[in-house]
Design goal:
cell membrane; mainly alpha; Tetracycline Repressor, domain 2
Length: 312
């Protein structure tokens, strides 16, 4: 890690609320909040609305804490990469010490409060998630192996499992399937991004698959993971969190995702450069919709179930 991550503020002006909030990676946090809420609402039994609100809030705070710790450690990389130079630390609005202090404080607060509001299993899962993202992925895997996204994807896959545990106090097949849905989706999602942002990763020295093995191998991997993801995603329709709505949505999305991955696989770099990676950017956008609609379908099944309309 560069000294830039722990230096005092550069000439970037005083930090405001927006700068400190940006440390928490609000875009990533929004995905954490959504998938955690779906896991909580799909879980059997249910909890009081206020407890549910508190659980999702503390999971969101924990996700934000992970983001702050990630920005603290990756400040040197963020200074180099075009899409991250405006982040609070590289822009000089927030110091590395502040980011570290905020990340650690919020981590302890979120885990303890989630434990007190729900149960120790949910609190422990949140603590492990923060540790996995901040230490296993950010500090170890990200700069060490091209499999960083594959293994590190587990960190982003835990929120629905935590939401489920907040209600049930445990882990089940359904919560594991929600975890696996995100876990298997993460590599093709981020590798699609790496295809058109490869120069950023090269400059920063991050061993993304596109950097270490090239775009051709990356396209092969995207196709393989998309093929493996499809039966997992569709198969979830036949569990207690699935139903006809989820099945319909999943079949359509996986056909589109497979066709998109196949188009990427057939492309060569000359074609991609001519249209400035138009298909790769389109596939990346589709991947965002893919995850959102799958979890939206799980939520719809859960919402309709009390009326006898959701599920099988």
């Amino acid at each position: 890690m560069s000294d830039a991550s722990i230096n005092t503020q550069v000439n970037g002006g005083e930090a405001g609320f927006r700068d400190y909030f940006a440390l928490l990676k609000p875009r990533v946090m929004s995905l954490v909040v959504f998938t955690a809420a779906v896991g909580l609402l799909a879980a059997p039994g249910g909890v009081h609305p206020f407890v549910a609100f508190c659980a999702v809030l503390f999971i969101a705070v924990g996700g934000g804490a992970s983001g702050a710790l990630n920005m603290w450690w990756d400040a040197d990389i963020d200074q180099v990469m075009k899409r991250t130079t405006s982040r609070p630390i590289p822009s000089g609005k927030v110091t590395g010490q502040e980011a570290l202090a905020i990340g650690l404080t919020l981590s302890v607060f979120a885990c303890v409060m989630l434990w007190l509001a729900t149960n120790i299993v949910a609190g422990a899962l949140l603590a492990f998630t923060i540790f996995f993202y901040a230490v296993v992925y950010t500090i170890w895997l990200k700069r060490w192996t091209p499999q960083n996204i594959v293994i590190g994807g587990a960190a982003g896959a835990f929120p629905p499992m935590i939401g489920w545990a907040a209600v049930t106090g445990g882990v089940s097949v359904e919560s594991v399937l929600m975890f696996m849905l995100i876990f298997m989706w993460t590599p093709p999602h981020f590798w699609a991004l790496a295809l058109f942002m490869n120069s950023d990763y090269e400059k920063a020295g991050v061993p993304m698959l596109t950097v270490t093995h090239g775009r051709r191998v990356t396209r092969n991997h995207i196709l393989v993971y998309t093929i493996l993801l499809a039966p997992l995603a569709i198969g979830t329709a036949f569990t207690s969190i699935g139903g006809p709505i989820y099945l319909t949505v999943s079949v359509i999305l996986n056909v589109l995702f497979l066709l998109g991955a196949l188009k990427l696989w057939r492309r060569n770099e000359d074609q991609a450069q001519v249209d400035k990676y138009r298909l790769e950017k389109s596939f990346f956008g589709l991947s965002l919709m893919y995850l959102f609609l799958h979890f939206g379908a799980i939520l719809a099944e859960a919402a309709l179930k009390p009326y006898g309309l959701g599920g099988w």
